[in-house]
Design brief:
The complex is a heterodimer of chains A (110) and B (116).
Chain A: E1 9-13, E2 18-23, E3 32-38, E4 45-50, E5 53-56, E6 61-64, E7 70-75, E8 84-91, E9 104-109
Parallel strand pairs in A: 1-9
Antiparallel strand pairs in A: 2-7, 3-4, 3-8, 5-6, 6-7, 8-9
Chain B: E1 4-7, E2 10-13, E3 19-25, E4 30-38, E5 44-51, E6 57-58, E7 67-73, E8 76-81, E9 90-98, E10 106-107, E11 111-115
Parallel strand pairs in B: 2-11
Antiparallel strand pairs in B: 1-3, 3-8, 4-5, 4-9, 5-6, 7-8, 9-10, 9-11
Classes of the chains: A mainly beta (110), B mainly beta (116).
């Protein structure tokens, strides 16, 4: 199982772009990268998933370099409501082996 | 989008009693369901994975006789905490994966268990 390393916490201000990087040096060929957001006392919410290069949806972008040993979640123009814990998961989505790492606690300030 | 519900959202029970938590996929058939436990300020820890109609696969260190998981149908899984103790107090979260979206896990809102 690929282990992930993320910054424990990050601070930002409203309107800024936030980039959270996740390291996964032991990522395997079949592994996908998935990011979740979690608010206190709630279940995680899916943000984005990718395998390589760049993926973009209505809320975020995911950048994955060619070696796939890291990935960066980019949140454009954050607001106070984006204050949450963000988790990077790496695993084989076909074999149910996705595990949560420690997560990054993002605090957005006014 | 796919919705997963949990019941109850909060439960308080006395030490030594058992409590059952339900996890339902409301608008899709869940071929696989997952149960997680989360302590304050910590990440989610996978407890077990269950496929419909078969026994759950427990993670190392999780007592299967204490945490009984039943995935009896494609829309319902239950977690029973037997002989609960205060150290079992935690936030329990289920998630589900369906045939139509096999690459995504949809999470329930969680159940806060307090054992007194």
């Amino acid at each position: 199982l690929a282990k992930t390393t993320q910054p424990i916490s990050m601070d930002s201000y409203e309107g800024q772009e936030v980039n959270i990087t996740c390291s996964h040096n032991n990522i395997a060929t079949n592994d996908y990268i998935t990011w979740y957001q979690q608010f206190p006392s709630q279940g995680p919410r899916f943000i984005i998933q990718g395998y390589k290069t760049k993926v973009t949806n209505e809320v975020a972008s995911l950048f994955i370099p060619a070696d796939r040993k890291s990935s960066t979640l980019s949140l454009p123009r954050v607001s106070l409501s984006d204050t949450a814990v963000y988790y990077c998961l790496v695993g084989d989505i076909y074999n149910n082996d996705m595990r949560f790492g420690a997560g990054t606690r993002l605090t957005v300030k006014p | 989008g796919a919705v997963v519900s949990q019941h109850p959202s909060r439960v308080i029970c006395k030490s030594g009693t058992s409590v059952k938590i339900e996890c339902r996929s409301l608008d899709f058939q869940a071929t696989t369901m997952f149960w997680y436990r989360q302590f304050p300020k910590q990440s989610l820890m996978l407890m077990a994975t269950s496929n419909e109609g078969s026994k759950a696969t427990y993670e190392q260190g999780v007592e299967k006789d204490k945490f009984l998981i039943n995935h009896a149908s494609l829309t319902l899984s239950t977690l029973t905490v037997t002989s609960a103790h205060p150290e079992d107090s935690s936030f329990y979260i289920c998630s589900a994966r369906g045939r139509d979206h096999p690459y995504e896990q949809y999470f329930g809102p969680g159940t806060r268990l307090t054992v007194t």
